[in-house]
User: Fold this.
Amino acid sequence: MHELSLMCPEDRVEDVSDALDALDALSVSVEDMDAQTEAEQALFGEPGMPPPKDGWNRSRIVALFPDEAAARQAQDLLVLQDFFGGCQVLGIQEVEAQDWVRLTQSQFQPVDITPEFWIVPTWHEMPEAAKVSIRLDPGLAFGTGTHPTTRMCLRWIATQPAGSLGRTLDYGCGSGILAIGAAKFGAPAIDAVDIDPDAVVSCELNAQANAVQLNAGLPDKAQGQYQTVLANILATPLRMLAPLLCNHVQAGGHLVLAGILERQADELKQAYAPYVQLDVSDSEDGWILMTARKA
Ligand SMILES: C[S@@+](CC[C@H](N)C(=O)[O-])C[C@H]1O[C@@H](n2cnc3c(N)ncnc32)[C@H](O)[C@@H]1O
Assistant:
């Protein structure tokens, strides 16, 4: 395979990337041309907020083609386009053949939530220590067990007294990892909802792969009251969802919230104060888990 590298100013990145897609590039990646220099620009925003700026001043675009002729043909066509003004061809290089599947898979290892509870990609052997496990592959939906917010929710689920989870709601289910975890730890009935229809499909497929029964759907699928309500979203939507989520918790039931940074604890406590008293019950890498028991 061969890769074509280009330098583009910020306002040309979209047009050039779209053109490379249309020219049948196998993949197109965009990175900061000034990375590792004094001109490097961080584009990270607050979690849940857009980045302060859409793109870097100068981007390096790398497009992969099956052979040198295809890369050269794409280059020759691109330089003729009016939107290519201000861009520059950096070169065409051969890329060593790699076992991409194996390389990608090697980046996803089994993750231990507790010494006995593991998230294991389907291509991995089950670790000997795993007494309870979720089989899950990386997909389009969030939730592979590597993010601290997911891990804390799963740890909470795994450490509840046996048989105590009761009817459970996973609000913002993503891959369905929390709902599946709840099923593995004995929740007798589970609703898993998300605003993203792709997440709902992913959740259903993952539940099937783990031989778990649950009802997945859009948020209006959440009906009535639950002994356990789990929501790993982000602080801003969690604040707005306070009355809705608390209404879904039955008396004596648990509310478990994640996606919250340490410095956001007080604003969440205040938002939920009219309904329940939230406390910080776990933390990992600057993220906190907040839980409450409804009176
Ligand atoms: C951080 S992911 C969590 C996924 C999974 N539950 C986990 O713990 O790994 C948040 C999910 O919440 C969904 N979401 C965001 N806002 C929502 C809302 N207002 N109602 C329902 N789902 C929402 C997103 O689509 C996303 O799938």
